[in-house]
Amino acid sequence: MTSKDGRPDGHVETEAMAVNLPSVRRLEAVGFRAWPASSVYYDGSWLVRLTAGHASKRLNSVNPLDPSDYRDIAIRLDKAARRFTEHGCVLTVRQTPLTPPQMIAHMDKSGWPAFGRSLVLALDLAERDFGDGMDHLPVKDVARFADARLLIGKEDPESKAALIGIINAIKPETGLFLFEDRDIGPTAVSLVVHDNDLAGIMQFAVAESVRRQGVGDALLDASLRWARLRGAKKAWLQVEADNEAAIALYRKAGFTEVYRYVYRAPKV
Description:
Number of helices: 7
Oligomer: single chain
CATH superfamily of the largest domain: Gcn5-related N-acetyltransferase (GNAT)
Keywords: Acyltransferase, Transferase
Organism: Sinorhizobium alkalisoli
Shape: globular
Protein name: GCN5 family acetyltransferase
GO molecular function, one term: acyltransferase activity, transferring groups other than amino-acyl groups
CATH class of the largest domain: Alpha Beta
InterPro entries: Acyl_CoA_acyltransferase (IPR016181), GNAT_dom (IPR000182), Rv0428c-like_C (IPR056935), YpeA/RimI_acetyltransf (IPR050680)
Strand order of the largest sheet: 4-10-5-9-8-7-6
């Protein structure tokens, strides 16, 4: 099966000629800690993440973490599918550079389509001079942040409890950034997760009414400044490959691509 541009459906291209697998492994690990699933178990080196009642693909997916772990692929996928069904989810595999080629070939042969193509970008914070002060401080009210995030993202307000639950479950230090306008309300949000020398930029969103007005740049600067002052040496984030505006914003700030991933699921 091929995509619209003629590449195999599971093809994940990268800017670099070779992907640094140790860097991928570390960013995968901090990514899991930054956005924790409610149920986690391992099948060999496959990390299975499940979160009933939440539609996030990152929270409901099989994540292979060792290219050499490809034994009994069909049997293990069938086992995982049963667990996903019990949680009311469809079996989904998150295919990264750590996914065994044999597993990719199995999904290709079985006709599993690819969707949700995303980029993982990183920035060396040591190369940025943020100064010693903070123009914007993070808020402490998780419920207020969740309301703003759902409003800006035009998401179902009923998912507020689930979003609050995920944020409260994050173990590393977090910074909740919320920009508001007196007349129009919330304009931008960002969740920064500080994990040792790394900082993840999560839930980054800017309201449509204020885009292309410098709000995104200011929010990103505030998020990175806070992370640097907390001791982070490098920032990372994940962004969907078709979000050209966001990618342009991040590249302008100096972020570069580390690797890409894509989701795969059986044809219905």
